[in-house]
Design a protein that fits this description.
Chains A, B: Pfam families: FTHFS. 2 copies of one chain form a homodimer. Chain A folds into 3 domains: 300 residues, Rossmann fold; 131 residues, Domain 2, N(10)-formyltetrahydrofolate synthetase (2-Layer Sandwich); 82 residues, Formyltetrahydrofolate synthetase, domain 3, CATH 3.10.410.10. Chain A is built from 21 helices and 26 strands. In chain A, the strands form 7 sheets. In chain A, strands 1, 2, 3, 4, 5, 6, 14, 15, 16, 17, 18 and 19 form a 12-stranded mixed β-sheet that branches. A 3-stranded antiparallel β-sheet of chain A has the order 7-12-13, with helices on one face. At the A-B interface, helix 7, strand 9, helix 10, helix 11 and strand 25 of A face helix 7, strand 9, helix 10, helix 11 and strand 25 of B.
């Protein structure tokens, strides 16, 4: 059957390819895995025992490490996941031994309006239903581990309120004096449940908890998920879990999961989740799916463990950084690579003619609204002007010492003159450029991109961090704002100033990484400013502290950790074919 | 290594046996499964594709169907799960082709004080950590499916409050006018989170939900779990999910998951969960684990699908009914067998000398308190007197037309004279009796029980229900109360009377099954009345209606759908060995 993405829906293409996809046993054979290393979850999904694999292959040199990032996108997105998958397919088509690592989608967007981010057209990962609906249960494990901490916290508060010191001592419990006004964590659920954003709990009698305000977050915003993404192994994971600050006591001291004696049990729920999951592209290359931290407050990347495994199993390992290069790549560079000790050989920057036009002055396209006509016509001048944004991101990648490759993610409205303009401008700036038609043609359409990446990976890398961990926090933030965002400086709210004092005064907190929060729709903090905004300062409103994950989060702008379900969400159209058991209506 | 339960903890025995347990591939070979029918989840846990198996073996006669129930227990429990597992091991030791089906434990009790119900001594199921910590994720799937209904409900209430009819019509939504005072469902989480029993949600602005009272239940109390237990196949499951009543509108009409357009998506989260899980006993017999409905309000039995599969795969299929025979067996008999169309060949009634003494007048033993000395001494008189309770349950089993086998679950303090007394009394009443030492000796200790069961299974069965579905609800309740509990009659609260009128007037509700709620610690509704209480009436306080699960629940007593976490819960002692990945401290 001819697969034509211009005529078929994504899930129809996925369903067609799923009819003859490889079993995980075939994939494991091709990767040379032992029987013990492959943990099948049904026939088409597996977990890989990271520990056995890394032990067996510890002397094998790593493959080439490729990160895919993007220019500042329009609100429609510019196909970063699709390009990552297309690149994997392209490298596969060239006969390279290739693997990838991507994030697991949250049930929130999958059931709401965004969909499951499995790529699109002929660049997708399958099985789509397993990928979209929880895979092997890692997010559920995060949810259980996280909520167990809240159970321990609220039960402890109730028991301390009901029992005197003598009774507590008999139960071998010391009084923690938790401040109900300073509970840091919300509960989690992996849907967009705005009704649980602001709640009051513990109503009823004295055996029904401690009455106080509380909140729910989407599960992928849990610090447990952030920890899953950045941990190097189970030991590291266990230690980080124990450092999570759940609340503060009435004297301002942090109460951790270890204080609540729940860190070990939280970890018990996560033992299987630490192993990466494996599925495949439409063309049968293996793809690891592992961790899906909420990009708004966490690292927004798939796990370090998946990268360790991928780099041992293949000659080319492709991963992706959430959002644009100023957000996603900056965190990949200064946080993920610092935690992992890995160095990328090549960084792909995905651009579209659409986004370049937008940066050059065309009206901003909006989801659910008709595409402005400017995007259906040739406008070389806007494209050229918009390249300023792309050039800025190329410079950012170069500052890391990595080799940039620009991928023009082709669309049928692109004209030759527009593409030629981008190619010329980028090549003048010293970046490789490739046009890729993976959406329309799969791996066959991504050969130019694959070749450019293979070439770039042969070049020497002079990888260096933007800042050292002994640099004071304000200096780090200023350096990121100026060098990566192009700001003139940074201002701080009194709240942020106070937190910076606390952090700088604490030898443990001072050494944590820096994980910036800012819109990805502009280099600045204002999503309406396109191109390369000039003459602005970054306003830092607050600093969040994630001791377990190992970073502090300077927040420029507002963030919600619980998105809302819209009035026409995806779940209205999702169902099950009761004869075949196949899920219909996913996208 | 010699395994001595008098010297080793249960989890130590489990860990020792796990070192050389069979892989799921070996188990599948022994069962004659095809490669497609086995869905491994790692090396030691699998799901079985029920549909493929039932299609392939549709012409094969069913094996013998054995239900394990118990006399009225003490608050310490009398080892019903342990006996079920011991019986499977004993039949295996006799060379019979045997399989079992048990419930999956909830994370609530596992993390709290009850533990995970994996049996004990040399009658356990393994791997213990997988069994105790969510297995393949079915309970998480229930949680997600259930909570998605609440997301749909609360989002809809918010949108109806914020938008006028014209805007709703544009989004193809009709106004449902949900009554915030008549939301039937709570949210679910699979822990004992008493702080979430009574909550207020939807605080904040108009985009933050609809402000109202709400509640959380333990996940296994979800109607989705009840439906998983009673569904015959995916089609049946899908239809039942769509009939769940989430709330009522302002005119008193039910609002179902179909009305909220969320039933299909709920089912999508459950597609994998409908396949039973397979693990094994310490001695390598396969055991299916499937569904774990909260016995307090639901059927309290493992799934019908698991029984269908087990009966095709083996010559002897052992399952278990939650609580004592008046509760568990009565539901097995009149609900589960009615829904499934299956007929048991033999019913095992587990008794202990301890419980018989208690029914005969010895002080009630309590968890966490020293065992009263009466239980450490010979007291044949109390044992004989206590046999009245056992005889009552034997009669109940006989009323169903099934063949009873009494299993005396032996303990080292039992004396020969005590055991002889029970044997004599039961045999006089026409029941087979076997003494079993499975806890101490595994299958070798359960040979007498296995032989008695094999013999009983050869006898003819004259299975008949206690009531027909065309019998009015009050008559059914009265019949159960009199015939099974030994009550003189039934009284109804005004609330219950009102519900009965509604049910009797509705042709759909009238045909639903009857699922009684009452303490299991007495034949009566008063847990302190031991033996066979006389001269009492059953007070029915309320009737719950579960349209999806397909039964109404007359409630005699109080029930909480959200247990509380105690001050010394199990999670304090649970941790992970970061070198081996093994979970420690489970019980």
């Amino acid at each position: 059957m001819k697969l034509d993405p211009t005529k078929m829906k994504d899930w129809e293409i996925a369903a067609e390819c799923e009819k003859h996809m490889k079993t995980v046993y075939q994939l494991a054979d091709e990767l040379g895995l032992t029987k013990e290393e492959l943990l099948p979850y049904g026939h088409y999904v597996a977990k890989l025992d990271y520990k056995l694999i890394l032990e067996r292959l510890k002397d094998r040199p790593n493959g080439k490490y490729i990160d895919v990032t993007a220019i500042t996108p329009t609100p429609l997105g510019e196909g970063k996941s699709t390009t990552s998958i297309g690149l994997i397919e392209g490298l596969g088509k060239r006969g390279k031994k290739v693997i990838g690592a991507l994030r697991q989608p949250s049930g929130g967007p999958t059931m709401n309006i965004k969909g499951s981010a499995a790529g699109g057209g002929l660049a997708q990962i399958i099985p789509l239903d397993k990928f979209s609906l929880g895979l092997t249960g890692d997010i559920n494990a995060v949810m259980n581990a996280h909520n167990l901490a809240l159970v321990a916290l609220t039960a402890r508060m109730q028991h301390e309120a009901n029992y005197d010191d003598e009774i507590l001592a008999k139960k071998n419990l010391r009084r923690l004096n938790i401040d109900p006004k300073r509970v840091e964590l919300g509960w989690v659920i992996d849907f967009c449940a705005q009704a649980l954003r602001h709640i009051v709990i513990g109503l009823g009698g004295k055996m029904d908890g401690y009455p106080m305000e509380s909140k729910f977050w989407i599960a992928v915003a849990s610090e447990v998920m952030a920890i899953l993404a950045v941990s190097r192994d189970l030991k590291d994971f266990r230690e980080r879990i124990g450092r999570i600050v759940v609340a503060f006591d009435k004297y301002g001291n942090p109460i951790t999961t270890e204080d609540l004696e729940v860190a070990g049990a939280m970890c018990a729920w996560m033992v299987d989740a630490i192993n990466p999951n494996m599925i495949q592209t439409l063309e049968g290359q293996p793809v690891l799916i592992h961790a899906g931290p909420f990009a708004n407050i966490a690292i927004g990347q798939s796990s370090i463990i998946a990268d360790y495994v991928g780099l041992k199993l293949a000659d080319y390992h492709v991963t992706e950084s959430g959002f644009a290069a100023d957000i996603g790549f900056e965190k990949f560079w200064n946080l993920k690579c610092r935690f992992s000790g890995l160095v990328p050989n090549c960084v792909v920057i995905v651009a579209t003619i659409r986004a370049l036009k937008c940066h050059g002055g065309a009206p901003i396209p909006r989801p659910g609204q008709p595409m402005p006509k400017e995007y259906l016509e040739e406008h070389v001048d806007w494209v050229e002007k918009g390249c300023a944004n792309l050039l800025h991101h190329i410079e950012t990648v170069k500052k890391s010492g990595s080799n940039p490759v620009v991928c023009i993610n082709a669309f049928y409205t692109d004209t030759k003159a527009e593409i030629d303009a981008v190619r010329r401008i980028c090549e003048e700036a010293g970046a490789r450029v490739a046009v890729s038609e993976h959406w329309l043609k799969g791996g066959e359409g991504a050969l130019e991109l694959a070749d450019a990446v293979v070439d770039a990976c042969e070049e020497p890398v002079n990888f260096r961090f933007l800042y050292d961990l002994d640099m004071p926090l304000k200096d780090r933030i200023e350096r990121i704002a100026k060098e990566v965002y192009g700001a003139d400086g940074v201002t701080y709210s009194p709240e942020a100033e106070k937190k910076i004092q606390i952090i700088d005064a604490d030898p443990e907190l001072r050494k944590l990484g820096t994980c910036m929060v800012k819109t990805h729709l502009s280099l600045s903090h204002d999503p309406n400013l396109k191109g390369v905004p000039k003459g602005w300062v970054l306003p830092v409103r607050d600093i969040l502290i994630y001791r377990g994950a190992g970073f502090v989060v300077p927040v420029a702008g507002t963030i919600s950790l619980m998105p809302g379900t819209a009035s026409d969400p995806a779940y209205r159209r999702i169902d099950v074919d009761v004869e075949t058991g196949k899920v219909t209506g996913l996208f």
